[in-house]
Amino acid sequence: MSRGIKKFVYGIGFLLFFAGVIFGIYTVVFKAKPTCFDNKQNAQETGVDCGGVCAPCAQRYAQDITVESIIKFPANGRVVVIADLRNDNEDYGFRDVVYTMIAEDETGSVLGSTSNHTFIYDGKTKGSRYIVDLLDVPAKDIFALKVEFSAPEIVSSKEFTEPFVSIKRSSTDVVGLRKVIEPAYVFSREIKVGMTGDDVKNLEDFLYKKQLLKKFPDGTFDADAVIALKAYQKSKKLPTSGVLDTRTRTSINAEADRVAKIVIDPNASVSISGNVKNDDLLPASKIIITGFLYDALGIQLGGSKTEINNLEAAAEEDFKIVFAKDIPLDKVDGTKTRVFIDSIK
């Protein structure tokens, strides 16, 4: 090998050596170390700036829980709040999250709040559910309601699956209602020509249905009404005075239309009872059963919930959901009742 070539080779070697030294110094002294905020997947990260030594990827990329709607119902001086939640994350669920329900007045001042823990599965399997809670605030004072979330434990959908728990039976039980038949109206005063009022119209309506009054009832006891009343008195062999006196009132009250009326006892109540079974191979640590009541038109009257803790595999347990006394019991249509179940291992 010629002397010139040797010099060239040695020169290249020295250059590479010095370049390595300089790069080493740069790497050790000047180059930024990997962090969880450099928008790169490096170090022991399993994703960009997540996993490994960084926060779990689920917590970094998951969207917040959405509150679809919030409704309220009076409950014995307090208020029942029902929030409809949705999880749009198809690959992540919230194994635990703290929710806070907040009631505000018209100025935005907080009237009251309550906090609790809940869970919600991924959007693919069961990404929606209701939460029900009580606020120690009169319903009439509330202008706005909101729900805030904190301290979420977000996990992959593969790690968070719902146990096979189902409702085997349920029924809506209304206790303390009585059906009575009573007169549609009762006449209590003397009525004579020239008088007006609702009772006059009821009297005219009675005579009209008997085909004695020739005009349409208008609430004025005029000459036509007097003639009709005299005709009725004559048919009952009563003095034909044309005045609704005591004997005539007694006779008409006995014949007045009867109507059915629902009487609600002071201790009346409504509840949903049923039975749940855990068909899973593992115990269910918590089961939340939520019930909604409706009237015949499908208008919601209220909501409530109950919980069962630690239901063993293959086990069954009865439940009962109790509702506030503010529910209009005479309007409850048991065929419209809806019951939801949410459970966690």
TrEMBL record:
Keyword Acyltransferase recorded: no
Pfam families per UniProt: PG_binding_1
Domain Peptidoglycan binding-like: 196-250
Transmembrane segments: 7-29
Assigned keywords, A-Z: Hydrolase, Membrane, Protease, Transmembrane, Transmembrane helix
InterPro entries assigned: Peptidoglycan-bd-like, PGBD-like_sf, PGBDSf
Molecular function (Gene Ontology), one example: peptidase activity
Record's keyword annotation contains Hydrolase: yes
GO biological process, one term: proteolysis
Record SUPFAM superfamilies: PGBD-like (SSF47090)
UniProt-recorded name of the protein: Carboxyl-terminal protease
Species per Swiss-Prot/TrEMBL record: Candidatus Wolfebacteria bacterium GW2011_GWE2_44_13
